[in-house]
Automatic annotation (TrEMBL):
<dbReference type="Pfam" id="PF04083">
    <property type="entry name" value="Abhydro_lipase"/>
</dbReference>
<feature type="active site" description="Charge relay system">
    <location>
        <position position="376"/>
    </location>
</feature>
<keyword id="KW-0442">Lipid degradation</keyword>
<comment type="similarity">
    <text>Belongs to the AB hydrolase superfamily. Lipase family.</text>
</comment>
<keyword id="KW-0732">Signal</keyword>
<dbReference type="InterPro" id="IPR006693">
    <property type="entry name" value="AB_hydrolase_lipase"/>
</dbReference>
<keyword id="KW-0325">Glycoprotein</keyword>
<dbReference type="GO" id="GO:0016788">
    <property type="term" value="F:hydrolase activity, acting on ester bonds"/>
</dbReference>
<feature type="active site" description="Charge relay system">
    <location>
        <position position="347"/>
    </location>
</feature>
<dbReference type="InterPro" id="IPR025483">
    <property type="entry name" value="Lipase_euk"/>
</dbReference>
<keyword id="KW-0443">Lipid metabolism</keyword>
<dbReference type="GO" id="GO:0016042">
    <property type="term" value="P:lipid catabolic process"/>
</dbReference>
<feature type="signal peptide">
    <location>
        <begin position="1"/>
        <end position="23"/>
    </location>
</feature>
<feature type="active site" description="Nucleophile">
    <location>
        <position position="179"/>
    </location>
</feature>
<protein>
    <recommendedName>
        <fullName>Lipase</fullName>
    </recommendedName>
</protein>
<dbReference type="InterPro" id="IPR029058">
    <property type="entry name" value="AB_hydrolase_fold"/>
</dbReference>
<keyword id="KW-0378">Hydrolase</keyword>
Length: 413
C-alpha cells in the first residue's frame, strides 16, 4: 500500500469514469479576457498544436454564469476557419476534461482520428475543470461555485456548448460521450430544445442507471457514505490531487477491499489499457469535480434511478413541487434521433444489465457494439480502440451524413 496514493488519481478519474466569445468568437494566442488562460497553458498549445493540428479556443457562458472552454480542431491539412465537415462534440467523463480525447498518439486518440477523417471536431470542458475559466462572479474557493451535479452539466453546460456550435456552424451536431459524458447526453436529449440541435449521438460506456455497479471499491465508497464524509471535512470541491482525499480513499481499501489491482477494483478488468503511459496521463489528470456531483452519482447507485438531484422531501417540494425528484424520461428522447452505443463485458461501472435497462426505456433501437473483453477505460485509452471501436463509430456517422438532407460541402464529415 506504500505506493497507493501515487496511483490513486488516474483510476479515480476513470471512475464515475447565450454564448460569450472573444471578438468574432475565435482566438489563438494570448488574450486580455479575464477568464482566459494564456496560449502556453491552453489545451490547444499543450496537446493538439504540437501534433500539427490547427486548434482554436472559445469561451461559452452558461445561463448560471460558468465560463466553459471549447476547442475546435481540424486535420493537419485543414483550415480551422473554413471547416466543411459535420461538427462533432466530444464530451468527457468524470474527473476528466477535453484532454482525455488526445492523450495517446494521433493514430490512437479519437480527437485526432475524427479530425483526420474530415470532421469538424469540437471539444467540451465542463465547469470546474482545468481548461474552463471559472465563473462571472464566483470564485473557486467559494462553496457556491461547487453547487452543481451532472444535472447542471447536462442542462446548462452541454446545452450551451451545443447552442454555440450550432450558431457558428449552422448545422446539427454529432455528440460523442464517454461515461459521465453519456449521462449528460442522455439527460440532455430528453429535452426537446436540446435534442433538436443533435444529428446523432455515439455513447461509449452508456450510463443512465447505476444500480448494478459491481466494482468493489465503488461499492465500499457508497456503503460508508464517502460523499457525507467529505462534506463532514468541510469540502465542496473534489480534487484528488489533494493529500486529504487521497488518504481518505486509501483508508477505505486498508483491510476492507483488495486494492493491489486498484484499477480493476474501480472499473473492472481492462484488456488493452496502455499502463506504460500512466506518468504522462498524470500530467493532465485528474480534474476537479464537486462533492454534490459525487452525491448525485451515489444516489443513482443507492436508489436505482435516473433522476434529478434528490434534496430530501422538503427541499424537493420547494425545488420540484413534489416529494421525489423528477425522473429523466428516456422515452422522451426522439425515436427519430439516431443512437450508437458501445459497451463492454468487463465494465464494472456501465454494467451490461444497466445498459439493457437503458435500452428497454428508449423508444428507438440504437446501433450496438458489444465487446466482451473491454472494460470501462478501454473505450477511451485502449491501444486497439481505433480498430475495435472508432472505425465502427465513424461508419455510423458517415451513414447518418449520407442519409441527411443537409450535407455541408458534400464531405463525409
Amino acid at each position: 500500500m506504500d505506493k497507493f496514493p501515487a496511483i490513486l488519481p488516474p483510476f479515480l478519474i476513470l471512475f464515475f469514469s447565450f454564448s460569450l466569445s472573444l471578438s468574432d468568437g475565435y482566438f489563438t494566442g494570448n488574450s486580455s479576457h479575464p477568464g482566459l488562460t494564456s496560449q502556453a497553458d491552453s489545451l490547444c498549445a499543450q496537446l493538439i498544436e504540437p501534433n500539427g493540428y490547427s486548434c482554436a479556443e472559445y469561451i461559452v457562458q452558461t445561463k448560471d454564469g460558468y465560463l466553459l472552454a471549447l476547442q475546435r480542431v481540424s486535420s493537419r491539412s485543414g483550415d480551422i476557419r473554413v471547416q466543411q465537415g459535420r461538427p462533432v462534440l466530444l464530451q468527457h467523463g468524470l474527473f476528466m476534461a477535453g484532454d482525455a480525447w488526445f492523450l495517446d498518439s494521433t493514430e490512437q486518440s479519437l480527437g485526432f482520428i475524427l479530425a483526420d477523417q474530415g470532421f469538424d471536431v469540437w471539444v467540451g470542458n465542463v465547469r470546474g475543470t482545468r481548461w474552463s475559466h471559472g465563473h462571472t462572479s464566483l470564485s473557486e474557493t467559494e462553496k457556491e461555485f461547487w453547487e452543481w451535479s451532472w444535472q447542471e452539466l447536462a442542462l446548462y453546460d452541454l446545452a450551451e456548448m451545443l447552442n454555440y456550435i450550432n450558431s457558428v456552424t449552422s448545422s446539427k451536431i454529432f455528440i460523442v460521450g464517454h461515461s459521465q459524458g453519456t449521462i449528460m447526453s442522455l439527460a440532455a436529449l430528453t429535452q426537446p430544445d436540446i435534442a433538436e440541435m443533435v444529428e446523432a449521438a455515439a455513447l461509449l460506456c452508456p450510463i443512465s442507471y447505476l444500480d448494478h455497479v459491481s466494482a468493489p471499491l465503488v461499492l465500499r465508497m457508497v456503503a460508508v457514505h464517502l460523499d457525507q464524509m467529505v462534506l463532514g471535512l468541510g469540502l465542496h470541491q473534489l480534487n484528488f490531487r489533494s493529500d486529504v482525499l487521497v488518504n481518505l480513499v486509501d483508508s477505505l481499501c486498508d483491510g476492507h477491499v483488495d486494492c493491489t489491482d486498484f484499477l480493476s477494483s474501480v472499473t473492472g478488468q481492462n484488456c488493452c489499457f496502455n499502463k506504460t503511459r500512466m506518468d504522462f496521463y498524470l500530467e493532465y489528470e485528474p480534474h476537479p469535480s464537486s462533492v454534490k456531483n459525487l452525491r448525485h452519482l451515489f444516489q443513482m447507485i443507492r436508489q436505482g434511478t435516473f433522476s434529478r438531484y434528490d434534496y430530501g422531501i422538503l427541499k424537493n417540494l420547494l425545488m420540484y413541487g413534489q416529494f421525489k425528484p423528477p425522473a429523466f424520461d428516456l422515452n422522451s428522447i426522439p425515436k427519430s434521433l439516431p443512437l450508437w452505443m458501445s459497451y463492454g463485458g468487463n465494465d464494472a461501472l456501465a454494467d451490461v444489465t444497466d445498459v439493457q435497462h437503458t435500452l428497454e426505456e428508449l423508444t428507438s433501437n440504437p446501433e450496438l457494439l458489444y465487446l466482451e473483453n473491454y472494460g470501462h477505460i478501454d473505450f477511451l485509452l485502449s491501444i486497439n480502440a481505433n480498430r475495435d471501436v472508432y472505425d465502427h463509430m465513424i461508419g455510423f456517422f458517415r451513414m447518418e451524413v449520407e442519409a441527411s438532407p443537409f450535407d455541408r460541402g458534400g464531405k463525409f464529415g
